[in-house]
Amino acid sequence: MHAVCFVRRFEFDLNGTVFPNALSLDDVDNDGSNELVVGNMSGELVIFKSDQLWQKVTGLGMITALGIGDIFNIGSNALVVVGGDGWCHILFKAKQDDVVEQRKGKLESVHIQRIPANTKVVLLGDIDGDGCTEMVMGLTDRVVRSYRWVPDSNQPGSGKLIGLHKWECANQIGTVTLNHLPDGTPCLLVAQPGGTLMKIRCHTTEGASSENSEVLAATSVEYHALASSKMRNPNVSTEIQGGIRTGGTDSCASPRYAVATLDGTLMLVEDESVIWSIQVDHQLFALTKLDITGDGRDEIVACSWDGQTYILDQEKCSVCFQLEESVMSFCSGYYTLQPGHPPVPCLVYTTFTHKIYVYYDVQLPSMRAKRFIPEQLTAIEKNPRRAQQLMEWCLYGRR
Amino acid sequence: MENIIDAHYFVLPSQGNVYSLTKLCVSNGANKILAASLRRKVFSFEYSGDSDGFLKPTVKEVLFTYIPNGTEIISIDAFTRSQSSDDFVIGITIIKSSEHNTPTYLNIYSEWEPSSEINLDSVAQNCLTIQLDFVPYQLYHTEMYTNADKFNKEVVWLLSGSDEKIHMFREDQANHCYSEVNVADYFPELVEPPSIILWMDIYHCKNEARRVSAYGCECGYVKLAIVDLTNREVLSCWSARFEGPVSTVRLFTEESSLETPSFLNVAQQEKEEEMAVHLLVSNTLQPSVVYMNVLQQGLRNCCILPDSERYDAVLCSAIADVNMDGRHEIVLGTYSQDVLVYKYQECDADKSGTWFLLSQRSFANPIHSILYLDVTGDGVKEFVILTLRGIHIMQVISMLEGMAFPCL
């Protein structure tokens, strides 16, 4: 397996336990740059911009998950911080046209609401195709709930989250992710133990009044086993990552999703059929997507507890990177190194030594090493040994 | 180093040192790397080609015999008996540490029968062991011309030791063994160094009639000697002294000496003059220096590699044409995890010039050894960099993309 050693990184300190879903990379303050947001078990939330700490918020309870998205449906991102103790905090900073003003302000808590406790995963996204962002929470009680923001006034943050759906799963929830059908219909994928998943489709009925709760709750749930003979244990926890871009302009191709289990199975799935699967001897606990080669196709990034990170493209070519420390939580995404510059792909690790590592120089030109063979050369010289000597002489020979 | 990309990386189970990386130049062009780790394991690395042009890296442990439990590998070196065949001879020096004494050995591995194809596993099983009475340092090999017969080349081992001597080992083909011979008889310039020799380098020039030898010592002493090979007489020698240990010395020519491939019907240009030979001395405390044109000027014309002392101790060096301009650049690897590339710039006025830092690249660990050779088999050379933790294979890519080859 092709392996690399990434070198350039930022190193931040953060005490305490970081839950696997309590870190994210996105534009949290609406300034056009992507920040890194990390929350820990003791209620500290830290936001990093390029190589330094930008804001620290305390007293948010036991932060188990956080999400960044347009929860208010006003075209600006907000930060949703969910605690395992049942408090949901929404932090927000409005987009300002003035650059100086934009730099000055910090995120402010605009909304606090009591929700059911034991949330482990938060997803912000349009789950029913109505164009508005909803919030989905996965609970350790095997329950998935969805919420919608209902504003009271134009002021962002005045309003409340109201519950839309509640689904009960048969087993513990791994992660919740969003995938789209070929026709663009969103569907929720809920990872279930043993590499299985629940697929939930929410229907919005045009013209139905919102009081009609029966219509609102009309959903269809399918259960997929993704029968893979290599699956070793039906009880291992499972991670899922949807919306993997296949790159092509072909709109009828449905986005793929990846499934990883703690016993080391990694699968790429399209329309509930497994395209390929590999077995690794590391315990995969985090699964993300990232376009590392910059070709418009997402690569799958899976991380194990001992720091082994697998990067796979959709042709099953793999690159691995070993962080030489145990990993507490992992995410990947796009991070802005300098304001005004486009964000770059990066890998973020938090470790048991209270460090956050942001590897920002992870772009790979290609997933596999290739010989350099120019077209002219193959036309002239068929013998590979001679071609090699000719090439060597062209490049390094006496002038 | 900007246009150089990671092709592969593998971790060694235990660390190596500045002497633990060597190359196997196979005649079919598919070169291999041998890397020894301190705790007895030796790995070979090679690329196997794929039909669609992609490369598959292969890292394999080579099980060398006679490296018992509890020993540590100090140095490794390899050569072929002849240019045309793949008859490899591999030397490994080991130390066995125990409470009372620390026996040391030089193990020499080779095929029993001269063979044309390389089979590392069978080479690794044929061992000749020589017990040493000193702690070995650099294991080096060089060509020696016996009895003034230019065509009778023989490769001999030179091993630097803690007894402040160079020991020479020569194959006794009749008895099929190696024995130590008096180094003063063959290499009179290598006797009586003031302290342990950390690195030596030997260069043959003037149609193999002259030999240039250089070595650097632990005390900072550097010696350069020019030897006439017909009667093994030291023609001239120079010495210099630095403050800290000298990590490497390297003799190199300014331009690449790669000849036109024989299958091309290009008229060979007669060499008008011998290329100037320079001597690189990499220092651990002071800036590293290059002595220019040592054949004519000895150690008089000294060029400092600017800022080379600001990256902690320089542990290793390599001579490489990094930017493919036909001229050699100097590559230094430092303990501060940096690789530095220096380039020579000639001033037109008086033919003198300066070396300047062309580029720099950081790694995740201290750099122990650097090789520049073609492991992918495409004619483009790669960097093989041994760090404290593992081995990086780095490909030169971006510069070649879109490059025009006017000669093709």
From TrEMBL, chain A:
Q: List the GO biological process terms.
A: regulation of TOR signaling
Q: In terms of domain of life, where is this protein from?
A: Eukaryota
Which SUPFAM superfamilies does the entry link to?
Integrin alpha N-terminal domain
Which InterPro entries does the record cross-reference, listed alphabetically?
A: Integrin_alpha_N, KICSTOR_ITFG2
What Pfam families is this protein classified in?
A: Itfg2 (PF15907)
* UniProt-recorded name of the protein: Integrin-alpha FG-GAP repeat-containing protein 2
UniProtKB/TrEMBL annotation, chain B:
The protein's matches in SUPFAM superfamilies, at most eight in alphabetical order, are given as: Integrin alpha N-terminal domain
Q: Which InterPro entries does the record associate with it?
A: Integrin_alpha_N, Kptn
Q: State the Gene Ontology terms under molecular function.
A: actin filament binding
Q: Name one GO biological process term.
A: negative regulation of TORC1 signaling
- Could you tell me the superkingdom of the organism this chain comes from? Eukaryota
What GO cellular component entries does it have?
Answer: actin cytoskeleton; lamellipodium
Q: Where are the transmembrane segments?
A: none
Known PANTHER family for this protein? KICSTOR COMPLEX PROTEIN KAPTIN
- Protein name stated in the entry: Kaptin
Organism annotation: Coptotermes formosanus (Formosan subterranean termite)
